[in-house]
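Input (structure):
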């Protein structure tokens, strides 16, 4: 089951990369001042990909998608994206043969990404990037710098205008991605990944419903503190979500350690004294929730 879940998470992270692509690209340009009324921006015909993508980070919306993928990608369900006050939530169900349903959700704010899964099998919980990967958007941004974005024109989806771009290079080996960003808010209206080598569409996603509003509850993670343990470095990262206050964490069966943390922060702690040969677990408690992280020496 572990390997099949890894496959599911890998496939879903591919899709997540595309969905948060517009968020990370926002670091490439300065923000504009929104017009009055619904917080929308002006439509600019010649705006760059990164310029339009920057709007997806600062605007509020709720979008549901119809998604179709080939091969293993067919096991990914229909994505749904909420954006509110700088926090994004991307939800996708997945259904692997013999494993049942796994609901996979990514929360994204500033330089923090939290992946959560809830399924019918053994795995359930949240995780962040490994400790040896800095908690920043560099793991996405370095890819964006290698993309070539070419403006193709304007299209209409859900009665809203979107700017179509073709992305090539970077991670798109022997393929290209046509992606249409909403001309006012920058979210993905339509995307198609096409492989000229195999003369077929590999992935396709289209927005099927749009709401201009979202709420804090829509993007609020159920867990308040997420630990990520590293057995070899003998350290643990504690990442908070929308929670400020007391966080307790425990290494194996040792005593609780208590720290004060503010919301959406990452702090690293040495746990060498509590480590054991074999399997090690860190569990964090905050705001009435708990989550754990496991590693093996």
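Output (sequence):
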């Amino acid at each position: 089951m572990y390997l099949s879940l890894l496959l599911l998470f890998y496939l879903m992270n591919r899709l997540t990369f595309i969905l948060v692509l517009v968020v990370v690209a926002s670091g490439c340009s300065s923000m504009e001042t929104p017009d009055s009324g619904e917080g929308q921006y002006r439509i600019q015909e010649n705006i760059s990909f990164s310029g339009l993508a920057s709007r997806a980070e600062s605007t509020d919306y709720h979008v549901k998608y119809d998604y179709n993928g080939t091969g293993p990608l067919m096991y990914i369900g229909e994505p749904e994206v909420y954006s509110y006050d700088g926090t994004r939530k991307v939800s996708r169900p997945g259904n692997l043969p013999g494993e049942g349903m796994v609901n996979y959700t990514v929360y994204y704010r500033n330089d923090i990404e939290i992946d959560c899964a809830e399924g019918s099998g053994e795995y359930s919980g949240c995780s962040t990037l490994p400790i040896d990967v800095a908690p920043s958007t560099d793991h996405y941004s370095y890819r964006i710098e290698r993309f070539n974005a070419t403006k193709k024109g304007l299209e209409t989806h859900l009665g809203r205008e979107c700017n179509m771009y073709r992305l090539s290079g970077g991670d798109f080996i022997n393929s290209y991605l046509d992606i249409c960003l909403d001309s006012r808010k920058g979210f993905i209206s339509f995307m198609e990944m096409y492989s000229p080598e195999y003369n077929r569409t590999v992935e396709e996603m289209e927005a099927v419903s749009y709401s201009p509003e979202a709420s804090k509850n829509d993007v609020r993670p159920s867990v308040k503190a997420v630990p990520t343990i590293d057995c070899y470095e003998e350290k643990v990262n504690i990442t908070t979500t929308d929670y400020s206050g007391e966080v307790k964490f425990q290494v194996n069966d040792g005593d609780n350690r208590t720290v004060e943390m503010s919301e959406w922060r990452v702090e690293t702690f040495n746990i060498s004294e509590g480590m054991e040969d074999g399997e090690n677990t860190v569990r964090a408690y905050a705001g009435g929730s708990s989550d754990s992280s496991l590693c093996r020496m």
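Notes: The helical segments are 2-24, 49-53, 55-58, 138-144. The first helix runs from residue 2 to 24.
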